[in-house]
Amino acid sequence: MNSWRTAAPICVVLLMLLVGCGGSSDEADPGTTLTPSESSTSTGEPSVEPTDPESTQATRDKPSIQIASAPIGGNVQTDGADQCAEVNWLGRNPIPAGTTIQLGEASLDPTDLFDLYQDACDTDLRPCTEVTWQTTSFTPCYVGARQVARGDRAAKLIIAVTATCETQADCQSLAGDTPGSQISFAPGDLVSNG
């Protein structure tokens, strides 16, 4: 019985030495920190599954159309050389459900009598830049212009739009009965606003 008590601690010490001294080539140096992917490889455990959502089926592209001169109309207020136009949609009304109309850049035709000048409109009036119209969210926007030369021709306000629709037929019907712009800036006596 006495020899058993003496042999047990020696066996434990020998076992600890074997474990401590032994090692495999898969273990890292004591000064090396393993990343989760490295440690899972060296321990033989499977790597962690990604948590990103699985890709879904490709979404169906909706039909779209670009209209170079949108069907718009509205009143123009004049203050000397400055004018401000209220821009409303004159195309198909109501705008078809599921249709989004994104207003693009405004331009003038001809370009020699007026310059676009948003300060001609009150600051509380929404400019037409980056405006989107839909059936449920339609409010007018405003474009300002300043007369820069004498003349007798009006300058037509043109705004291009891009529309995305539920169906191609919806896109084709957007121009309605009044295609193009109905908004013009009429030249005056070129009174300076200072």
Describe the structure in your own words.
With 194 residues, the chain is α+β, with helices and mostly antiparallel strands. The chain contains three helices and ten strands. Strands 1, 5, 7, 9 and 10 form a five-stranded antiparallel β-sheet that branches. Strands 2, 3, 4, 6 and 8 form a five-stranded antiparallel β-sheet that branches. The termini are far apart.
Task: Give me the secondary-structure topology.
Layout: H1 2-21, H2 36-43, E1 64-67, E2 72-73, E3 76-79, E4 82-89, E5 100-109, E6 114-116, E7 132-133, E8 141-147, E9 155-164, H3 168-172, E10 184-185
Antiparallel strand pairs: 1-9, 2-4, 3-4, 4-8, 5-7, 5-9, 6-8, 9-10
- Overall geometric form: elongated
Strand content: 25-35%
Element-level helix/strand string: HHEEEEEEEEEHE
Poorly predicted sequence stretches spanning 5 or more consecutive residues? 3-42
The secondary structure category is alpha+beta
Major pleated sheet: 5 strands, antiparallel
Average pLDDT score? 78
First-last Cα distance = 115 Å
| Fraction of residues in H or I helices | 10-25%
| Backbone CA Rg | 37 Å
Number of strands: 10
Number of helices, counting only DSSP H or I runs of 4 residues or more: 3
